[in-house]
């Protein structure tokens, strides 16, 4: 029989957070081996679960959740998102500007698909959240990666962004707080990006899913609050701040210069209708989450679990010879650097394979986040302190052996 091939659109698509190394980890688990997984920010598996009041409200309303909703979602949770944007200082948002989705990921795909024509370019940070790059490629566009500077705390380089803008550039993706680096962008940098978007008439896509997961008293500024003459598409949801990854409850807000974007917004409405609606039980959690007690504040406080785990991971990693880390100001990840003089890694996916095979620790290699060099990896600091200490101890042991094997 003639082989059935996958679409050529997938030729340049990868998602190594759940890629080949994870497949090997699954195989090892099926053989009875226990793997410490530091590869994905899936909060529930680390005992970080949604607040009880969200769970109880969903249970009470499940009996009425069997039908389709409006394609943009139920009125009450969309209104709650409007109130949230008002608290953030974003002006001019109405219920009609809010779209609910099966997580922010679905909405990011929708927003890119509605904009990009074949050959169009979208600016994407490097390192990135790999969904951005994949979706642009699937839409027929070309992802163009702008540099985030590790020496400047992983902040985007404005000069590099502007140098990469071409006549085909349609938009820029900004991930703040950032995955995978944990960086938090200051207002002057955000204004600089907005000025470039204004000058070149770009759509700003702002992924702000970690906007409450902040450490050391840091505060987050919603990018769309800083201007109203640029079109902003902002993404958020319950997965991280409310530890509800599996609920797949996210939202997208259109704000700013909407008058000249009517055709694009019509495209968003069309795509929202094509998928009928997002899951209704997930929608039911949003209003309670946004209006209830923000328990994330306890977790990120100096005495909180997430802050303690971040500090421990940073301390243990930076004690390893040849390992440096920019301490995260936000989110759930860090992106350590391995000094190439000490760790001459030619293939960082193979490096991740070897770590998994020898020490049963699963990480994601830096190139999985479209970082151009083979000298970084992403680590999730969600495990409790005992498991985290064990995992990083195994990484340290592996790196010690790697240094000995590759010493000159």
TrEMBL record:
GO terms for molecular function: L-alanine:2-oxoglutarate aminotransferase activity; valine-pyruvate transaminase activity. Residues 34-395 form the Aminotransferase class I/classII large domain. It comes from the Bacteria. InterPro entries: Ala_Aminotransferase (IPR051926), Aminotransferase_I/II_large (IPR004839), PyrdxlP-dep_Trfase (IPR015424), PyrdxlP-dep_Trfase_major (IPR015421), PyrdxlP-dep_Trfase_small (IPR015422). Keywords: Aminotransferase, Pyridoxal phosphate, Transferase. Its EC number is 2.6.1.2. Its cofactor is pyridoxal 5'-phosphate. Belongs to the class-I pyridoxal-phosphate-dependent aminotransferase family. PANTHER family: GLUTAMATE-PYRUVATE AMINOTRANSFERASE ALAA (PTHR43488). This is alanine transaminase.
